Amino acid sequence: MKGDAQPLIKFFDGSDKRFIIPLYQRNYDWEESNCKQLFQDLIKLHHSDRKSHFFGSIVSSIQSGTEDRFIIDGQQRITTVSLLLIAMVNAKKEGLIEATDAKLVEKIFKRYLVDEYQEDERKVKLKPIKKDMQAFDALLYKPKSQYINESNVTRNYNFFYDEITRANLTLDELFETIKKLEVINIRLDEDDDPQLIFESLNSTGLDLSEADKIRNYLLMSLTPAEQEDLYTRFWNPIEEFTNYDPSPFVRDYLTIKQGKIGRIDKIYFIFKNYAETENIDRAKLLEDMFHYAKIYNQIDKANIGSDKLNRKLNQLRTLDSTIAYPFFMAFFDYASLTGLTETEIYQVLDIIEAYWARRIICNLLSNALNKVFATLHRDVLNYMNKSSKDSNNSYIDVLTYVLLKKGGSSAFPSNEEVKSEFKTRQVYKMPANARMFILERMENQDNNERHDVVKELTDKNKIITIEHIMPQTLSDKWKAALGNDWERIHEQYLHTMANLTLTGYNSQYSNLTFIEKRDMEKGFKDSAYRLNNYVRSCEQWTETELKTRQKELLGVFMRLWPMPTTSFEPLNREAESASLDDEDYEFTGKKIQAYILHGVRYSVNTWKEMLIQVCGHILIEKRSTIEWLCANEKCSFSTTPEDWKRELAPGMYVWTDNSTATKINILHGMFEQCNIPASELVFEFRSDQEDGNES
Q1: Do 192 and 61 fall into the same domain?
Q2: Alpha helices in 260-367 (DSSP H)
Q3: 47-51, 61-65, 549-553: range with lowest mean pLDDT
């Protein structure tokens, strides 16, 4: 690798030299603000005595047998300055800028923008990736009416064109200033590894998205012909399938493959580790990603099959169901491979919806679902593979079993829990998308004639609103109608399902009496919404009516999302387990028989034995962090021996004679300090549980 400082314009100069932006690079995406900063720097540079202005580095490799430069880093700067030069040439041709040197326009065009001796039909020196190239070439050769205005290339060209015509500089003055831009020109030798250099240059992750880095990793080391082939067949369609934001898709893809959720800002390194560990051919890996990206797109667009299936999937999408995408992607792939019927697929979506709706009503946190959906399909297949070959276990039966056996923060709420929580659930404390989902489903149920409640609630013209029948602020008339116990009734029912409905009238009238709200224009009596069927028949709105409507709506809820049953039973009784990140799990009283760390199972007899062993594993893995914990007396670690402590290594001790709950807290603290996901540690329990704390 060789590098030296030189004027940028010298880098551009020379015949038989092209600057090729490899297909693995991202599109040109400098913002107008970046261009504005560059132009302001040039104006300041023109008015100063400075001889040069540092403009960053350019890393390139030379294609064997040619002078062509493959730009590994610096494409944004090269493209931007090229646009500036084109704008200067066009502005001069159109008489909007003066030039002292009559041949300067021709010089800029022929020396820095095109190579007329190039054997290829395209003579332009800079070769951006395909979509940018069309816009770039149009600026050189086509009239303004044929510019591709939606491109960043054209937008930034237009910015420079306008600035040049207003800058009160001659072409010569502006060009002399551009000649002061200086770069570090780094040229790679054949033995240099472009991928390692690229990673080093972009290690901060500020310039490139995680998907950009993944694309570069997959294509960079290939020949230009291989790059062209794989980019065209696989990567570009993947970007199109994911609305040009592949990073979330890649995270979901890795979740399917690995059974755990990676941090979105670390997806590149997780992906690279996966690809290298599995040693998958890059073409096959891209083909597999392409396959799942198609499914991802179908899910994202709710276009997976029949109108009935699409409608069901679209209802789930109201819930911001991206957290369920890993399950949906894996399941729909499986359904296609095994030929599941539409009825079977619909049943699966139905139970997922019931699981979700019941959890919303019971106010169970949605973040627990990330982990559930990360492994749900894999869990179902594991049970199916372990069952008897003679059994006729269906996917829906096993899925139901898996969901019903979940506990803690992942539980499938029972009928009793739903009935209890339905009465008191504060609807306005639900996330907005969950609130709209519940109301939309309870309004439409399974009727063919439907109201698009979500669209109408989110319409900027406020087609409908969610209305409190008994208003939030009670007038004297309302207090009198409710009776002496009005304060309790108001507090108990105000934000519950019993007192909420959909209405088209202006919410400023919400404090009117019940009869006025019922009989007014667009009032409850005129309402076409099914949620008002009972309300329109009432002559008053008191606790009696609230209880009646509460019972009615609870019945609707239970019909929409009944508690599922299953006949599936695993061949062997499975040991109960929970992971360290199961925040609501009650570990006290459980007898541990094993733990699983980083996917490896270790048998133990006591919690104390487990704690000592896990600390030993982490000491090997993160020694410097454990030393720091001990030195600073953090998380029950120390450097001083005591009878109640256990030595992990010379001068390093951890408190072990304590309750199960304390041991769990120690592990939480250690894993957090060591930056290890708590989900990496799973505990397995014996079936003969006893009360009390076990050491």
Answers
A1: yes
A2: 267-278, 282-300, 307-317, 325-338, 342-361
A3: 61-65
